UniProtKB/TrEMBL annotation:
Pfam families: Glyoxalase (PF00903). The lineage of its organism: Bacteria, Pseudomonadati, Pseudomonadota, Alphaproteobacteria, Hyphomicrobiales. It comes from the Bacteria. Residues 4-129, 151-267 form the VOC domain. This is Phospholipase/carboxylesterase. InterPro entries: AB_hydrolase_fold, Extradiol_RC_dioxygenase, Glyas_Bleomycin-R_OHBP_Dase, Glyas_Fos-R_dOase_dom, VOC_core. CDD domains: PcpA_C_like.
Length: 518
């Protein structure tokens, strides 16, 4: 059978930093961008050579602002790219130019190796070798073809069962042992790439998350071979396997005895099935199964710019946040605050449906309850930590000041839209910091702030939407009274719905926009 690495998949926390490193610094080719096969709300990027050849591919699941993982046994720990041996000096100089820390060259199994880390902390090795074929070298705008990365040289796997892990690779994936040290067994494929099986006995176990390698995929010529390997694995009682049609390849997943996840993927049909070969990676594709949810999915996916393209520089601000910029913008901006248990992407589809040409800024609350984000701590279902409300309101105002300076956010023209717990925070911010928020939509809000200060909100437009069948609706009148007493230009409506939000909210907000010239 064909052997060797098909691709390696990692998990990244920041898409723009990832693109800048793998395309901008390493000079790889973006050959495909999709919504995740398992989770369409997760961006999946594929980098490789000019034609996206098996063996050149490194792919990333983007968990934007996701939690970091932990490298340990039961997981791959390093990836390696092949470069011409005479290009070591070029890459040392390039790392200095890009202010990227690099170590080496050092000799590993007779090959010169440079070590560096990507923005998520994954160890990336550049290995000087002529041991691999070069199917389609890719020359980027500032890396000559003679110095460009050829393909994947290999990967390192950490395991507490080195003998069993090595035997698994040899029995089912076409590898053979060619060298060894006290702690590493080097296995090679017929394609020329290598897997270093490293004894990590006594090391801690791996934990999934950003900055880790999710799995290594090996090559198979066709689906029949994949299914034959599956039969062999089942006959050997090698553990559970799952098979999937990934559109660009058919694949099988299995865990080896040491715990690392492996995939067996077919060489075809390849990435040109839905894009011309000379336009690979230019279009974002979503899994067909999402159907009518395509627009909702697109707005949730993090956006990025290719090297050399204009981009929005991300600012380090007190709250995790996500911008969405439509292709055609009309100058309107919505700041969107989720309800209990949501995150910075939850309200983006609502904002986009409300106005497809509006710029959207989704923000994530910093408080947590049983692991889920909130805007402030809850003591009971209807009472709240007053000090936490005030401190988080202060922090949110600092966030807005940073967004105003860093992103050019015009607070006077911005509409703040909050749902449930997010609406409660907006109400608190308005009362504690008059004049910061001038246009607010509060959906399913209640009076969370006790003993609010006297505030002059005469310049503030507020739309408050209460659900007729909302069990929390009985707590809304107290907030209406407080906002009216503060002098807001208040429109308070009871709509025929429950605690959730939907089309009735959309219609009411659009009418309010028209009536107030927003």
């Amino acid at each position: 059978m064909t052997s060797g690495i098909h691709h390696i998949t990692l998990i990244s926390r920041r898409v723009q930093a990832n693109v800048d490193f793998y395309l901008g610094f390493l000079g790889l080719h973006l050959v495909k961008r999709t919504g995740g096969f398992e989770d369409p709300n997760q961006l999946h990027l594929f980098y490789g050579d000019a034609s996206g050849s098996p063996g050149s591919l490194v792919t990333f699941l983007v968990w934007e602002d996701g939690s970091p993982g932990r490298v340990g046994h039961g997981q791959p720990s390093e990836i390696a790219f092949a470069i011409p041996p005479e290009s070591i000096g070029f890459w040392l100089t390039r790392a200095l130019q890009f202010s990227i820390g690099i170590a080496g060259p050092a000799q590993e199994f007779g090959e010169p190796v440079l070590r560096l880390k990507d923005p998520d902390g994954v160890i990336v090795k550049l290995v000087g070798t002529n041991a691999l074929p070069e199917p389609a070298p890719w020359a980027s705008r500032d890396i000559p073809e003679t110095d460009s990365i050829r393909r994947l040289r290999g990967a390192t796997v950490l395991t507490e069962k080195p003998r069993e892990t090595a035997q698994f690779l040899q029995s089912h994936f076409g590898y053979r042992e060619i060298a060894a040290t006290d702690t590493i067994r080097r296995l090679a494929s017929t394609s020329g790439d290598v897997i270093d099986v490293r004894d990590a006995t006594g090391f801690w176990t791996a934990a999934p998350g950003t900055g880790t390698i999710d799995h290594i995929a090996f090559r198979a010529p066709d689906e029949a071979t994949v299914l034959a390997v599956r039969a062999d694995l089942e006959q050997d009682h090698a553990g559970a396997t799952t098979a999937h049609d990934r559109k660009y390849f058919f694949s099988l997943y299995v865990r080896e005895p040491g715990g690392s996840l492996y995939e067996l993927a077919t060489d075809g049909p390849g990435f040109a099935v839905d894009e011309p070969p000379d336009a690979l990676g230019t279009t974002l594709f979503l899994p067909q199964r999402i159907g009518n949810d395509a627009a909702e999915t697109l707005v949730r996916l993090p956006q990025f710019a290719l090297p050399g393209e204009p981009r929005l520089t991300r600012r380090d601000l007190p709250f995790v946040h996500r911008f969405y910029h439509p292709e055609a913008m009309n100058g309107r901006t919505f700041v969107l605050l989720h309800g209990s248990g949501g995150n910075e992407t939850d309200m983006l589809p609502f904002g986009h449906q409300l106005d497809p040409q509006a710029t959207l800024l989704g923000v994530r609350g910093r408080s947590t309850e049983e692991g889920f984000p909130r805007w402030f701590r809850r003591l009971t279902m209807t009472t709240f930590d007053q000090q936490d409300i005030r401190s988080e309101a202060d922090a949110f105002v600092a966030f807005l000041e940073g967004a105003r300076e860093g992103y050019g956010l015009d607070l006077g023209k911005t509409v703040f839209i909050g749902y449930s717990n997010g609406a409660n925070l907006l109400a608190a911010v308005m009362l504690l910091h008059p004049g910061v928020i001038l246009n607010a939509v509060l959906m399913r809000a209640m009076a969370a702030l006790e003993a609010p200060p006297e505030s002059d909100l005469s310049e503030t437009n507020v739309l408050m939407l209460t659900g007729r069948d909302d069990p929390y609706g009985k707590h809304a009148p107290a907030l209406k009274h407080t906002l009216a007493e503060a002098g807001t230009k208040l429109t308070a409506l009871v709509i025929d719905t429950h605690h959730g939000i939907g089309s009735d909210d959309m219609e009411a907000i659009r009418r309010w926009f028209a009536e107030n010239g927003l």
